[in-house]
Structures are given as C-alpha cells and as structure tokens.
Amino acid sequence: MLRSIFEMVDVFLDDLAVQRRSSPHTLRAYKADLEHWAKDLATHGILNVANLNDILEISHLRSYLASFYDTHEKTSICRRLSAIRSLLRYLRAHGKLERDIGVLVPSPKASRPLPRFLKVEEILELLQAPDRSTHLGRRDRALFELMYGSGLRVGEAVGLNCGDLNLEECWVRVMGKGSKERHIPFGPPAQEALREYLDAPGVPDFFQLLPSVVPLFMNFRGTRLSARSVARILTKHLVRIASSKSLSPHGLRHSFATHLLAAGADLRTIQELLGHSRLSTTQRYTHVDLGTLIDEYRDSHPLNKK
Q1: How far is Cα 149 from Cα 141, in angstroms, rounded to an integer?
Q2: CATH assignment of 120-300, given 1.10.443.10, 3.40.190.10, 2.60.40.10, 3.90.1150.10?
Q3: Among 177, 182, 224, 284, the one annotated catalytic
C-alpha cells in the first residue's frame, strides 16, 4: 500500500519524537514546514513516495525554496530546507527513496546576527531589581541568578524541579536539547538567592517534601513557570534598570558566555557548560567579544571622540 506524503511526514515526526527525542518546538516547526511542502508537491502531481522517486527533481525543490526569497528571511528558508533534507534522508535510509536530491541543493548564505547581551554592570543592576521582600521577587532574583550563573536556556530553567538542585555543592542537573543531561555549577550568589527563595517563611511545604517532582520556579497560581512568563518577567525588571535594554531570556545565556570568554575562560569549557554539540556554535562569542572591544575603543579613544 502506497503511503501519501502526509502519512510519511507523520511517521517521520514520530521517529523524531521517539528515537531522537526532538523538542516539541522542533516538532511543531518541522510539521508546519513539511506539510506546506507536501501541499506544494501535490500541485506537481507528487502525492506519495513512489511519485517522489519518479517525478521529484532538483528543479522542483529549487523553485519551491525560491518562492520564499521575497517574503522570508534566509534563516527561515534554511530551516525549511533542513526539514526537507531530514525527511528525504530518513526515507532514503529506510529504503523508501532511491535517490536523495536534498543533498544537491545548497543552503542560502544566511548571516548570523551577533547575540545580544548585557554588560556586567547591567547584569548586576538586573539582579538587584526584584523586590526581595516578596515571594515572587525572591523567585525572580533566584531565577535570574541561576540562569546567568549557569548559562541555562530558558526551557532548561523552567523545566527544573527542586530535586535537580544540589545547594550544598552548588550544581544543577539540567536536561538539555535532545534529552542530553549535564551537570552545571553555579556560584555563591545564586546559592544565596535560591536559599532565600526556597527557605523563606510561607513557602509551601511541598518544596521540601516532594523535591523530585515539584517545579523549582512556579507562578502565583502554583503551576510551573512558562518560557513566555520568564520573558515577561525579564522585560518588567529590565525597564527598572538604567540601560532599559530590550532582551530575551536567552540574552542572559549570551551574557554568561560572553563574560566568561572576556575573563579568559577556555572555549571548550564554555562549550561544555552551554551544552553545545559543536564548537562552531560557541565560537560566535569570540565575535561578540571583538564587537565589545570595538565599542569600548569608540567610546574611549580621545581621537575617536572628535
């Protein structure tokens, strides 16, 4: 029985979810991209896998991607091509496809913007911004201290349970991309902020009674904090500091890496702490540090001020 392209997309996504443990965000993006491509294939009479072998040509894929150039960023086109390549590679590996044309189509050259981050003095201002006399203020400070102190992704931070913390030895167990577990240290400031948050009077007993299943960071309703909520919390506190910069939660992770590099930390060490699978991803921060150097030069050199 011939399977439609849409059915094969569903099978492929199931494999991503079960075998590769891809994140829900990745699965949603791949599903949208691949279903859009499947609809385009149907306009060319390509309805099932047999048609892919008999009809699909490089020109089809090139034409499809070219249709996005006037309306989409190159990064978006690269993502679509990556999803299509992954599907074709999967079909070829499972004997459903005789030839894989995805490898013959080059990716558009996409410029990667430098990560946005806060300077050290701006980070210090941010960490002092929450009102520590309230439970939510102590939560916000502990959240920022841990995200900046350990370089966590926002999804990693909100996914933490109380049992993932070792406050005595100052490390946290994190489940990163691809369900890869890593243990990351944090410093005394984060330790102090977390203790102040967890040990304060009035904190629910289940923080201590069920640490392995209770979310570390919760909202005022007592449910796990979401990544979107963290973005709102960060924005709320950023407007209170002198710089008033616009920054996503990922900017705390960028700040962590940039400041470590500027202080002389080894790239391999930063790679391990961030959980990057490739060193090239971590090397982006060398360009950030160069940009900081240029900014400092422009701001400080007397001849440049004329």
Answers
A1: 11
A2: 1.10.443.10
A3: 177
Report the range of poorest mean pLDDT among 59-63, 133-137, 211-215, 235-239. Answer: 211-215
Q: Give residue-wise pLDDT tens across range 251-277.
A: 999 999 989 888 888 888 889 899 888
CB 53 within 8 A of CB 88: no
Residue with tokens 């960071």: 217
Annotated catalytic residue 44: no
Q: Active site residue: 60, 79, 237, 276, which one?
A: 276
Is position 109 annotated as part of the catalytic site? Answer: no
pTM of the predicted protein model: 0.66
Catalytic residue among 79, 80, 139, 153: 153
Q: Which residue out of 60, 141, 250, 254 is catalytically annotated?
A: 250
Q: What does the alpha-carbon distance between residue 137 and residue 297 come to, in Å, rounded to a whole number?
A: 37
Q: Is 250 a catalytic residue?
A: yes
Please confirm, yes or no, whether 177 is among the known catalytic residues.
yes
User: Residues 91-100: pLDDT tens digits?
Assistant: 888 888 888 8
253 is catalytic: yes
Say if CB 161 and CB 173 are below 8 A apart: no
CATH H-level, domain 5-104: superfamily? Tyrosine recombinase, N-terminal domain (1.10.150.130)
